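Summary for the lay section of the report: proteins are chains of building blocks that fold into shapes. Here we show the chain for Rrp15p-domain-containing protein and then a coded description of the shape we predicted for it.
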Amino acid sequence: MSPPPPLKRQRLSEDESDDSDGSGNFSDDSEGSSDHIGDMKPQKSRQTKKRKIRATRATAFGETLQSLLGTDAPSALPLSLKPSVGRKRNDEKLELKAKRVLQVERKEKEDKGRIKDVIGGWGGESERALRKVAQRGVVKLFNVIQQSQASAAAVVEENKASRGTGKATLAAPVEKPVNKSDFLDFIRAGAVVSKR
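The coded shape description reads as follows.
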């Protein structure tokens, strides 16, 4: 198996490339074709060659920096050169201003007939104390309502449990209380005491 191709392209010198082009799995009948294959290689464009040129001397690098430092750079942001970006930003600013104006007008309409300070002496602390009192009262009210609902539910459950299942039964007969004197009379007479 051949090794995997390298990840980066490696530039070979012209001598090495000529040698590598001639060797390979080509048939022996085309020995003079190595020059012909070299001609068939795609030529690099001038732009590619320009990109590959590197500064080799420090003076060339310094001269380039000096020439760049001498030029005037635009002070504005690069995005500000695009008119669409500037228009969008201006539109957003205008929309925000319009929203603020509408909010202010709406608040003024709402506050038009409103009397803010009915009782002059009220402040933040007294109002806070009144709110606490009101909150305590509401909590107590809800607790009482919850307890009454729970007790009502318990009564309903008791009624269901006492009712039982199946056929309804008759109520138990009510026994009449027997006086002590009547009881003793029944015993003396030898009669059976009725349960009525």
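Put simply, here is one thing we learned. Residues 128-157 form one domain.
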